[in-house]
């Protein structure tokens, strides 16, 4: 019954939306503007992620608009705060699509909202560029029909799990890997990739422990890692549980290096666990690179970003992500150019060639490929005078490059 009701609602919405716009253009498009939106957690416990993410998006759109927009159209950006709640995210997403009549969703934020809205958006077929999550459901190598309107950029968790294993072996010489994973979409996706790549390489997962994502006591799981003789610990979890896991390992007296997900590769997260840095190394995946080819100077991409975003978020990885989200959408606009701005024209434009984005990110959407970027860098946490920071240990590489294949 739920699917039938959704199908009926979507059918009515599609007929209504198809009639919107000017001339041959889609809804949210006028001669002078194109309207986009998203719903993101800008209050609540994940506001420290959502606020800089939204700021990064807004800064990029402001820059484009100040330069005259794209094909004579400036970008109007609408944002709602869903507090990282899937039910609110669905409500606001429907409001954006059906009431605000946006042309596209840009920077679709967070696993709860993405999971709650994915079926709805695929049925309608509205372009959705960039997801602020790596949830496994986004992985689709052969998208068709409404699924073609989906354009993930960030690494999907399953792919990152494979990268984590490759780095543990190539950089840290791992032979007996321990895995702490959260019983949530992110943790299960990362674990799946870890298991796949470990099996292919014949590497032992000496200990695997599941924890609740909201647990404030992971001492038992930490003790299991130590008693199992692991030589590297992979933290397959997002910000809050990963911080709890690091503190538990530190309290247990661990000296085993840890690798965590790219979602934690931010100075804010690292500063929260820097007490552990004196006892064991902390590494993270990273899918962007802000440095020039010499690995010392900042890149032109970063310098432009820093100039536009201002000092508050100039070193914030979540602001980088918002900047990339907006840039992803604008690539499609630029490719459509002066042609009618329709959903189909936009989708075709995104598929016609690899999409090159700021900070060295490249994504290929050809032939329905919707898998995000699959190349990542390797960062190491450092602490100097009480200030924690990430430093690049290895540049962005594919899994084959990481393993020397």
UniProtKB/TrEMBL annotation:
Q: Cite the Pfam families for this sequence.
A: Peripla_BP_6 (PF13458)
- Residue intervals of the Leucine-binding protein domain: 33-382
Q: Which PROSITE patterns match?
A: PROKAR_LIPOPROTEIN
InterPro entries named among the record's database cross-references: Leu-bd, Peripla_BP_I
Q: Which UniProt keywords apply?
A: Signal
Write the signal peptide boundaries.
1-18
CDD domains membership: PBP1_ABC_ligand_binding-like
| Keyword Signal on entry | yes
Answer yes or no on keyword RNA-binding: no
> Gene3D superfamilies under this entry?
3.40.50.2300
Q: To which protein family does this belong?
A: Belongs to the leucine-binding protein family.
Would you tell me the protein name for this molecule?
Branched-chain amino acid ABC transporter ATPase
Q: Which organism is it from?
A: Firmicutes bacterium enrichment culture clone fosmid MGS-M2
């Amino acid at each position: 019954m739920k699917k039938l009701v959704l199908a009926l609602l979507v059918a009515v919405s599609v007929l209504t939306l198809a009639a919107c716009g000017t001339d041959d253009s889609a809804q949210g498009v006028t001669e002078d503007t194109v309207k986009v939106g998203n719903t993101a957690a800008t209050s609540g416990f994940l506001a420290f992620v959502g606020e800089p993410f939204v700021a990064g998006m807004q800064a990029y759109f402001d820059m484009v608009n100040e330069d005259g927009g794209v094909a004579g159209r400036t970008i109007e950006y609408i944002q709602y705060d869903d507090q990282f709640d899937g039910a609110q995210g669905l409500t606001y997403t429907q409001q954006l699509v059906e009431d605000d009549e946006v042309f596209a969703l840009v920077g679709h934020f967070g696993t709860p909202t993405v999971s709650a809205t994915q079926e709805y958006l695929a049925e309608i077929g509205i372009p959705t560029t960039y997801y602020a999550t790596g949830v496994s459901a986004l992985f689709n190598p052969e998208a068709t029909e409404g699924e073609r309107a989906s354009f993930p950029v960030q690494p999907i968790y399953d792919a990152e799990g494979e990268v984590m294993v490759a780095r543990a072996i190539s950089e840290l010489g791992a032979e007996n890997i321990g895995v702490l994973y959260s019983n949530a979409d992110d943790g299960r996706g990362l674990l799946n990739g870890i298991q796949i790549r470990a099996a292919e390489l014949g590497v032992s997962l000496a200990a695997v422990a599941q924890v609740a994502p909201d647990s404030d006591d992971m001492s038992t799981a930490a003790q299991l890692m130590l008693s199992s003789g692991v030589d590297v610990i992979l933290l397959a979890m997002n910000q809050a549980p990963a911080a709890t896991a690091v503190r538990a390992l530190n309290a247990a007296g661990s000296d085993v290096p840890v690798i965590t997900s790219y979602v934690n590769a931010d100075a804010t997260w690292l500063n929260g666990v820097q007490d552990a840095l004196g006892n064991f190394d902390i590494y993270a995946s990273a899918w962007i690179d802000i440095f020039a080819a010499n690995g010392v100077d900042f890149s032109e991409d970063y310098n432009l970003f820093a100039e536009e975003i201002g000092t508050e978020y100039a070193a914030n990885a979540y602001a980088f992500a918002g900047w990339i989200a907006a840039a992803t959408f604008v690539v499609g606009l630029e490719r459509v150019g002066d042609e009618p701005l329709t959903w189909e024209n936009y989708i075709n434009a995104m598929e016609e060639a690899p999409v090159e984005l700021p900070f060295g990110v490249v994504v290929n959407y050809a032939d329905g490929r919707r898998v995000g970027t699959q190349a990542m860098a390797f960062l190491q946490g450092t602490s100097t005078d009480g200030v924690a920071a990430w430093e690049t240990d290895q540049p962005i590489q594919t899994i084959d490059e990481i393993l020397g294949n």
